[in-house]
Design goal:
Number of helices: 8
Order of helices and strands: EHEEEEHEEHEHHEEHEHEEH
Distance between the termini: 11 Å
Number of strands: 13
CATH class of the largest domain: Alpha Beta
CATH superfamily of the largest domain: Dihydrodipicolinate Reductase, domain 2
Length: 339
């Protein structure tokens, strides 16, 4: 089997999961280089990695460069992806910088793997909340079409990075000391989220913009249109941060073009790649973030008909935002690239 020289750029929450995924999925690696802003040694699951300070020259001889990315406006890929491509690498970027560029494929392997062939040196990884939604709705779309989607997300702290998980941890410790008195801890130093997260939820992920939707909400709209090659689907989203460490949940309402029963939806999804159906609510069985952490699949439950709207259906969709929502999806793209 041919082996490849691989680079992982970034050793935050997503970068660490990329290292795990490469190892767990036995990606054929000849040489692995790990880059960050500064050099240091790290340990992941008992294995030590020597992290080098990123430079353009560091990409010499690299076949595939995985950029862990951030949800900020400008990630490392803006500066270093062209340098990696210039030296012969194909870049897979988890950040937001290239997703909506017309000449960059935006790929979820279970949905549009054929788009990878169109790359000109870079393939974009979609946003975490978009990935799990399109994986869940794509088999339904292929069967009966979808004309409308209304989605509310319940997004974990880790979606905003390690610092946000640390903020949640600190807040929980402080509130625990208070014996649940009515105190506010919104003025923490080093707070990275716009609001207190412990014992709280807030509908504010990203920046507010057009029509008072956040940038995170527009990602669900525009990325889904691009991935599914259908901009006629009416999509409306509300994104909410919740006090969960890892694992995004989504309540997804769809209106299909043709009628389909919940039983048929369950059967279709259960047979679809990358999906696990857990849907026995009377036995208290449905997907929950605590159960999907560390898993690569998208989990679907609470599949039910809208009794008041023809062809209306609800789905409850949960996935590990660091795995399928980021690292796993990127490694799956790399696996298709080398086939």
């Amino acid at each position: 089997m041919k082996k490849y020289n691989v680079a992982v750029v970034g050793v935050g929450a997503v970068g660490l999961e990329m290292l795990r995924c490469l190892k767990q999925r036995n990606f054929p690696i000849a040489e692995l280089r790990t880059f960050a802003r500064s050099a240091r040694d790290i340990e992941v699951d008992g294995q030590r990695y020597s992290v080098k300070a990123i430079t353009p020259e560091g990409f010499a001889g690299i076949d595939i460069a995985l950029f862990a990315g951030t949800e900020g406006e400008k990630g490392a890929a803006v500066t270093y992806a062209p340098e990696a491509i210039k030296r012969g690498a194909v870049v897979i970027d988890n950040g937001a910088d290239f997703r909506m560029k017309s000449d960059v494929p935006l790929v979820v392997p279970e949905v549009n793997p054929q788009d990878i062939k169109k790359h000109k040196g870079i393939v974009a990884n979609p946003n975490c909340s978009t990935i799990q939604m399109v994986v869940a709705i794509w088999p339904i779309y292929k069967k009966v079409g979808i004309k409308r989607i209304i989605v509310t997300t319940f997004q974990a702290a880790s979606g905003a990075g390690k610092e946000s998980v640390e903020q949640l941890r600190r807040e929980l410790l402080e509130l625990g000391k208070s014996e649940y008195q009515n105190i506010r801890i919104s003025e923490y130093q080093n707070r990275v989220l716009p609001q207190q997260l412990a014992f709280n939820v807030f509908p504010h992920i990203g920046n507010f913009g057009e029509f008072d939707y956040t940038t995170e909400e527009w990602k669900l709209v525009r990325e889904t249109h691009k991935i599914m090659h259908n901009s006629k689907i009416k999509i409306s989203a509300t994104t909410v941060r919740v006090p969960v460490r890892t694992g995004h949940s989504e309540a997804i309402y769809i209106e299909t073009e043709r009628s389909i029963s919940p039983e048929n939806v369950r059967d279709i999804l259960a047979k679809s790649a990358g999906i696990v159906v857990i849907d026995e609510p009377k036995n208290n069985l449905y997907p929950m973030p605590k159960d999907v952490e560390g898993q690569d699949a998208v989990f679907v439950g609470r599949i039910r008909r809208d009794p008041f709207v023809k062809n209306g259906l609800w789905l409850w969709v949960v996935a590990d935002n660091l795995r399928k929502g980021a690292a796993t999806n990127a490694v799956q793209i790399a696996e298709i690239l080398i086939q």
